[in-house]
Amino acid sequence: MDEATIDAYVATTAALLDMPLDDDRRAAVTAVMLRLAAFASDVAAAAHPE
Amino acid sequence: VTASERVRDALEAIEAADGALNAFTALFPERALARAARLDAEVAAGRDPGPLCGVPFAAKNLFDVAGVITRAGAKVTEADPPATRDADLIVALERSGAVLIGVTNMDEFAYGFVTENAHDGPTHNPHDLTRIAGGSSGGSAAAVAAGVVPLALASDTNGSIRVPAALCGIFGLRPTYGSLSSRGAYPFVELLDTLGPFARTAADLTAAYAALAPAMLDEAEPTAPRCAYLGAYFDEGLTSEASAAVTAVGAALGAKARIALPHAREAREAAFLITAFEGGALHRRRLRTRMNDYDPATRDRLLAGALMPGAWYADALRLREIFLAEVATAFEEWDVLLAAATPYPAPPIGQRSIVVNGVETEVRPNVGLFTQPVSLAAVPVVAVPVVSPGALPCGVQLIGRSGSEPLLLALARDLERRGVAGAGEIPAFR
């Protein structure tokens, strides 16, 4: 998943959950979410083998 | 020595040492001295207050103490109502005669491996004050390592007992998940949270566990436990010091085989996801209104967790089932599995990255590289310290099947008796 997609997801979900993020916070949370996305990709592959 | 004398000695030792350590966030001298006086009166009346009579202990500041606000290392909790009663594990230790003396520093909400708390400052490692004590139970570990209290209570979600035990060179027990009451402890990740003790000796750790879980120690121990090294994932990114500690303990326990848990890496990643998701969910309401009052080291991870897709959490739970089956299979052949507790000894306070075998990695997320997958397995672990003269301590995880605490504690006592493991002395604090 690319950074732009994650950034858009963070902004949308934050708005949905009524947790508005300023630009600095949004960038920091996107950086964390990118790491989680990489982990989630590995975990999904192992949890659902072809 | 009376209970009152022991408590006064501990309070004086803390007064002398804590300026350098920053291990404690609050002391309760009136409560402790009043309780010690009651214990002394019981002894004078010919009664036995228990095997831990007069032993002073500390607790991580996420344990409820009656009349005190449970801060869990945070600023946003400072206006919470005070606890109405002590946490169950504090009650259990005091029922055996121990005396709570204070609460200790930690990573905010137990979300970290370093105890560099933005509100309370960093806890310093007694072996080298420029270095971290590890986390998130760093205050409790540093207090025990420095010898100002012989016992302390802590919590371990992803390694928060085992990591500081290793970096501070003391014994720590993460009991079987769900085996001890967590009532009165500030929660973090329901699926992983486990409470347990620290001690400077394996005998004291056993005594603490006996007070916390008296029925467990009645179970029989295997006479010749079969021990194996965890290899593959657990061999990567390890310094020579940490590797030597595992080899020394393994050699003493007759370990020869090296086995792999094929999904260890994904188990660690699943633990990361579960932690973020549950932690984020727990704090979502507070983050909405108070996010700027959170520790910067915690805030963005909790925010990300609060926004994380549920599908990632569901996959992590599914991976957990696969890993639990893998671990159960390993324990059909082996009684004890061995792995380093941390990839390296304590890094300097404030250091962001570390080079291991030519590869640079971030310190904060990676100190728990070898403890996190084991947390997902829900099994008990004793962290034993290996302290070489002139070197910083390393720790080794003795990992057993569920309910095997008596065996793990017996092995820790044996390793200590043979001089393979042990806390060692820190002259500056003795």
Structural class of chain A: mainly alpha
Order of helices and strands of chain A: HH
Q: Distance between the terminal alpha carbons of chain B, to the nearest Å?
A: 18 Å
How many helical stretches of chain B?
13
The number of helices of chain A is: 2
Please compute the radius of gyration of chain A using only Cα atoms.
13 Å
Largest beta sheet: strand ordering of chain B? 1-3-2-8-10-9-16-17-13-11-12
**β-strand number of chain B:** 17
- The poorly predicted ranges of chain A are none
Structural class of chain B: alpha+beta
Taking the alpha carbons of the first and last residues of chain A, their distance comes to 20 Å
Which term fits the overall shape of chain B?
globular
Radius of gyration of chain B: 20 Å
- Which residue ranges of chain B are poorly predicted, with pLDDT under 50 across at least 5 consecutive positions? none
Order of helices and strands of chain B: HEHEHEEEEEHEHEEHEHEHHHEEEHHEEH
| Share of residues in strands of chain B | 15-25%
Q: In oligomeric terms, what are we looking at?
A: heterodimer
Mean pLDDT of chain B: 96
Largest sheet of chain B: 11 strands, mixed
